[in-house]
Specification:
6-stranded parallel beta sheet, binds nicotinamide-adenine-dinucleotide, alpha/beta, 13% strand
Length: 459
């Protein structure tokens, strides 16, 4: 059997590396139009950082895992074709800032229609609006080659930062297909690939539309939990309650459960916002305005939380940060990834730059050029400094903002850092990561989302 995956990104690369490693009898070709990205997949410096990914790729690359730009040749030779291209939020025209931009998916469907002269199983791995398979099938059916292909939905549930562990031991694999003899046979063929390492009872099969919709719904529910606890974090700050204590108290209720109840400066990543907006758009499209408004609030709450954090910094630093050095610890949207898409740090930094702060930014994995791109600044912009360590970033800063929960930030020598900062020295912990009592005993004033302030009271 030969598998081809179109799109060598955060999903295509790790997912195919796992299939290749677990199925040595299957040849896996990962193809992309982006030659630089493919070159990086073939080098010692993979284009994405994920714990355990280097080892996984090295294990299979050149044996049964190949990265190339040979899109058409790989489609032609494959039995199963995964479509794992980007589906960003549309920025123009009808549905701007809500609907998914499906031009990459459509272009792949047209290439398959043009090239494939034998029946293929085409697998939607990208997250797409419900009923996209219908559009793909229509395009394929217009092919002059006269072959019938099957389209399956197999959304990916991996989380960046834990992608390898998630792929190796998934909660479930979801496969949707047409409820016809050919459709069910195609589903079984894909099931047989995953069954090489995933227990059968964790492989769920459904109709096409349930599978497509379930991915959007899963992300909406996850994002909703974060916005829910973040909304409560604001109420905690007004009332003296501690959001971590509230989260523990409600999370021990087995009906609620403890996961995704961590208050923070806001969720980021390429998926949550995009997928919830997509759901909102779909609700509008199907005339369900109230349902759309309900989910839209998840995004509004997240936006508010990011701005609320920046405002809090401004207010605390005597309502002015103009010319003040502020250390930013962490720029990735979460720990253990170099991905910054929709990172809360982007929004907080932009708000502070608007107030003319001087930022010193440190992240262990994000490149300087990526930060410049995200903030829309030149590499020699005098308002931002890129520090080689957290210690360097903090030196001379009025405040230290923790925006990503990197483990290394817990281990910092805060006594030494305190000595290098003007007083009063502030820590704003946007991830509730640090030992606040200890920081207070060193002399810091500490603000952590959803917790009582720890500060000097001037009488
Ligand atoms: N990143 C995640 O954590 C995650 C998790 C689950 C699902 N998803 C979904 O998976 C999909 C891919 O996400 P990603 O983060 O891997 O995106 P990505 O932007 O990292 O990668 C997509 C790749 O597709 C390539 N591409 C686009 N059009 C192409 C074409 N016509 N031919 C060949 N290559 C083409 C791009 O060059 C790019 O390298 C999206 O729909 C996303 O919503 C992402």
């Amino acid at each position: 059997m030969r598998i081809c995956c179109i799109g060598a990104g955060y999903v295509g690369g790790p997912t195919m590396a796992m299939i290749a490693a677990k199925c040595p009898h299957i040849r896996v070709d990962v193809v992309d139009l982006n030659a630089d990205r493919i070159a990086a997949w073939n080098s010692d410096h993979l284009p994405i950082y994920e714990p355990g990914l280097d080892e996984l790729v090295v294990q299979a690359r050149g044996k049964n895992l190949f990265f190339s730009t040979a899109v058409k040749e790989s489609i032609h030779a494959a039995d199963i074709i995964f479509v794992s291209v980007n589906t960003p939020t549309k920025t123009f025209g009808v549905g701007a800032h809500k609907a998914a931009d499906l031009r990459f998916v459509e272009s792949v469907a047209r290439t398959i229609a043009e090239v494939a002269d034998s029946p293929k199983i085409i697998v939607e791995k990208s997250t797409i609006p419900v009923r996209t398979a219908e559009a793909i099938k229509t395009i394929l059916s217009c092919s002059e080659k006269g072959v019938r292909h099957q389209v399956l939905s197999n959304p990916e549930f991996l989380a960046e930062g834990t992608a390898v562990a998630d792929l190796s031991n998934p909660d479930r694999i979801l496969i949707g297909g047409e409820q016809t003899e050919e459709g069910l046979a195609a589903v079984e063929k894909l099931v047989s690939v995953y069954a090489n390492w995933v227990p059968k009872e964790r492989i769920l099969t459904t109709n096409l539309w349930s599978s497509e919709l379930s991915k959007l719904v899963a992300n909406a529910f996850l994002a909703q939990r974060i916005s829910s606890i973040n909304s409560i974090s604001a109420l905690c700050e007004k009332t003296g309650a501690d959001v971590d204590e509230v989260a523990r108290a409600i999370g021990t209720d087995s009906r609620i459960g403890p996961k995704f109840l961590k208050a923070s400066v806001g969720f980021g990543g390429s998926c949550f916002q995009k997928d919830v907006l997509n759901l909102v758009y779909l609700c509008g499209h199907f005339g369900l305005a109230e349902v759309g408004a309900y989910w839209d609030q998840v995004i509004k709450m997240n936006d508010w939380q990011k701005h609320r954090f920046a405002e809090r910094v401004l207010r605390t630093l005597f309502n002015t940060v103009t010319g003040k050095r502020i250390a930013i610890l962490g720029f990735a949207f979460k720990k253990d990834t170099n991905d910054t898409r929709e990172s809360a740090a982007i929004y907080v930094c932009r708000d502070l730059l608007e107030e003319r702060a001087q930022l010193s930014i440190y992240d262990p994995k994000v490149t300087t050029s990526q930060i410049c791109k995200d903030l829309g600044i030149a590499a020699d912009d005098s308002t931002v400094e890129f520090a080689p360590s957290a210690m360097h970033a903090a030196k001379g800063a009025y405040a230290l903002l923790v925006l990503t929960e990197w483990d290394e930030f817990r281990q910092l020598d805060f006594e030494a850092i305190y000595q290098t900062m003007p007083k009063p020295a502030w820590i704003f912990d946007g991830r509730s990561l640090l030992d606040h009592k200890k920081l207070r005993s060193i002399g810091f004033n500490v603000y952590s989302i959803g917790k009582p302030l720890l500060e000097d009271h001037v009488s």
